[in-house]
Design brief:
Helices cover 35% and strands 28% of the residues. It is α+β, with helices and mostly antiparallel strands.
């Protein structure tokens, strides 16, 4: 990789570090951000401008001036409601959905009944209707939704968005192009992520749950069948 490529990756890493710092601490002045991230103040200011332009960071007030006096520094705050993410899981008898802000706080949730072995077209339509209801419930423009994650029982191909088969919906057949089908009916052309429910579960526990910030995590899900997710 050339120097330009390395610099681009480093810039992305620094941006992510700063955003995570603000998300975890709520708000900080430039001096503390620079100290915690071991970056210069000018670099922090460039990163702040980048996120302010994207609506992910706001200026929440002014800090205290230094002993030498001078201009009071801005205090920057993570904008939890700068965007939203939607998630759904398809269980044996329910379509459960929620929409969260950028701190993972649930803003609205919906549960819809599914029939035993309900046909694929019907389930896809319910996914579409549920997504529209979530958007209406929080009264935001769909452009503010960054993506939709769908978890399902059974083996999946994350990269291709395929469900190889569903043990609860055998009438669907094999190798269902689920992501493609959902993408066609979601109005806002947002990214769709499809994966096994248990993988989402262990990832959720690692990011925001009981295993937050731990390196090695195992989660077990017991319901109509037994599944597990592992992060090492």
């Amino acid at each position: 990789m050339n120097t330009v490529g390395k610099q681009k990756i480093l810039k992305q890493i620094n941006r992510k570090r700063i955003l995570n710092l603000l998300r975890d601490t709520d708000e900080l002045p430039v001096s503390e951000l620079a100290e915690k991230a071991n970056l210069s103040k000018p670099t922090i200011m460039k990163i702040m401008k980048y996120y302010i332009d994207k609506g992910l960071v706001v200026i929440s007030g002014k800090g205290s001036s230094t002993e030498e006096g001078g201009k009071k520094p801005n205090i920057f705050k993570f904008n939890a409601n700068g965007g939203y993410a939607a998630g759904m899981i398809i269980t044996a008898n329910k379509l459960k959905a929620a929409i969260t802000n950028f701190k993972g706080e649930v803003i609205s949730s919906i549960s819809t009944d599914l029939d035993y072995n309900e046909n694929l077209e019907s389930v896809i339509n319910k996914i579409s209707d549920t997504y529209k209801r979530l958007i209406e419930n929080i009264n935001v423009n769909g452009a503010h939704v960054i993506g939709l994650a769908i978890g399902i029982y059974g083996p999946t191909d994350y990269n291709k968005g395929i469900v190889f088969y569903s043990p609860h919906y055998p009438s669907w057949g094999n190798n269902i192009k689920m992501r493609e089908k959902v993408q066609k009916i979601i109005p806002d052309n947002i990214p769709i992520i499809l994966d096994n429910i248990c993988r989402f579960l262990v990832f959720g526990e690692r990011i925001l749950g009981a295993a937050r910030n731990l390196n090695n995590v195992v989660s077990i899900m017991a319901g109509f069948w037994l599944g597990s997710g592992v992060i090492i």
